[in-house]
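Researcher: Next sequence.
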Amino acid sequence: MKKTLTRGLMNLLPMALSIWLFWSLFISLDGLGQVLLNSLGVSYLFLGAGFILVSIIVFIVGLLFSVSPIVWLYSWLERQLMKFPLFKSVYGSIRDIASLMNTDGKPKSQKTVLVKQANGGYAVGFIMSDNTPKPLIDALPEGEWVPVLFQLSYQVAGVTTLVKREDLIDVDWSFEEAMRFNLTAGISSTKSSDNLNRNND
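Model: Next structure:
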């Protein structure tokens, strides 16, 4: 009975949490849209009307940012606000995270690599960018150094380490699958293999 309950929980919990997160996001955006509708004198229409309004506004903003004067004006405003240290830190971090989701039709630059450890083992890491800041290059010994992210299991946080490119082993493994492997300490990969074996049987 314990195994049956555990099996049910392990299959139901990810689906339930995913639906709850997306539903919470939907409700939040719908509430924001309803506030905008109320400010325009429009009473409550139906569930989802606010979400549709927010989606339309985001789409229009996307169209506006294809116009050069709008892009120039926004860039000017961004530069002015970036003069404030606190705003620069918060806004810069959020912008960098958002840029990871916006490939703009370009192939993803993240690469999965193996890095040899002192004990002879290997750690799975990710090259997030090939551009190493010049101050770091000037401070490091001669060689081609690249920033490698080591993701911590069951945490959003990770450790960024500068490693010589010659010490990296490229792995033909997608960023998403390798990240899932690191985040779950290999459990997700093992589970996928077990499911594949059961299907083959």
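Model: Confidence is low (pLDDT under 50) at residues 192-200. The first strand starts at residue 111 and ends at 116.
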